[in-house]
Amino acid sequence: MFANTGTISFILYSVFIGITVIALFVAFYIILKGKVDAAKLDKMIELFKYAIVSVAIATVTLVVSDMFKEREQDVKELEYFDRYVDDVEKVDGIEQRFQLSKYLSIVAPSGEMKKSWSNYHDTIKIEYAEYLRDKREKAKLDTISHPTIEQEQRKEQLQEKINIKQGPLVSTGASASLTPRVYLQIPEESQRPLAATVQSVLRNENFVAPGIENVGKNPRTLIPAATEVRYYREEELDQALRLITLLKSMNLGLKINDTPQKVPGTGRGTRPGHYEIWFSRS
Predict the structure, then answer these.
(1) Distance from CA of residue 97 to its chain's centroid?
(2) What is the domain extent for residue 126?
(3) N or C end: fewer C-beta atoms under 10 angstroms in the chain?
(4) Which residues contact 279 (CB under 8 A, 6 or more apart)?
């Protein structure tokens, strides 16, 4: 409340009004009792009025001066922020945001702007520490030659968290910072080495390929006559076509459907960027 000079001015003005009213009641009481003669009372009242008015004027002048100083400070903060707004929007990841917030929390003009940047820096520092921990854990998992399915899933989770933190502050879409994820479905266990080759190529092409599932064990699973790519969202058709191009370039020895298959619905609980490759039988 007391950070607002307008509020302070109003409170002080109210206090001085209150003092004046009380002084009038005291003077009226003294007059009624006849304790002070009229001449002396007039001088006392004049002196009291002079003191109250002088202090009130000085106080209000000081408050008004502070208000102009605050306004000048606000203008400086806005001008300062305007110089850096483009840099703030263009930071490409949490590392850049951490360094930028640290810099601005130090050099910003004193005031609410500086306080805000300091608070933001304290917040981003926690996220940055988490980001570094995720990267270390992911690097450790990457060194495992034959990871389990759980380890692959953990790597995928970590990679998604890392990608989000490495993304720009202003994103062009909900899935802009998510790496495309591809699940491989094989009908025969003998195809696992072939699927592993596809998995390796996909990872080199910046896809997340977390695992290989043998869906042929379930007799109710419908195996496609030709190897096909499945996708879930209309806006992800281009990426599905890219996957078909990659599959054809590998010379797998399997018939590949030229048309990606759109799974009915709007995602069916999958996250954006989810794709599947269903192998046909050998």
Answers:
(1) 10
(2) 91-168
(3) N
(4) 184, 185, 186, 187, 191, 194, 195, 227, 254
Question: Cα–Cα distance between 33 and 30 in angstroms, integer?
Answer: 5
Question: What percent of the chain stands above pLDDT 70?
Answer: 61
Query: Which of 89, 106, 137 is the last residue in one of the domains?
Result: 89
Q: Concatenated DSSP letters for the chain?
A: -TT-HHHHHHHHHHHHHHHHHHHHHHHHHHHHHT-S-HHHHHHHHHHHHHHHHHHHHHHHHHHHHHHHHHHHHHHHHHHHHHHHHHHHHH--SHHHHHHHHHHHHHHSPTTHHHHHHHHHHHHHHHHHHHHHHHHHHHHHHHT-SS--HHHHHHHHHHHHHHHHHHS-SS-SSTTTTPPPEEEEEESSGGGHHHHHHHHHHHHHTT-B---EEEGGGSTT----SSBEEEES-GGGHHHHHHHHHHHHHTT-SS-B-SSPEEPSSS-TTPPTTEEEEEPPP-
Which has the closest alpha carbon to 256: 239, 277, 235? 277
Residue 95: CB atoms within 10 Å: 14
186 touches 213 (CB < 8 A): yes
Q: How many domains does the chain have?
A: 3
Domain boundary among the residues 114, 136, 168 is at 168
CA atoms within 13 A on the CB side of 163: 18
pTM, rounded to two decimals: 0.43
Predicted confidence (pLDDT) per residue in 189-231, tens digit: 999 999 999 999 999 888 988 889 999 888 888 999 999 999 9
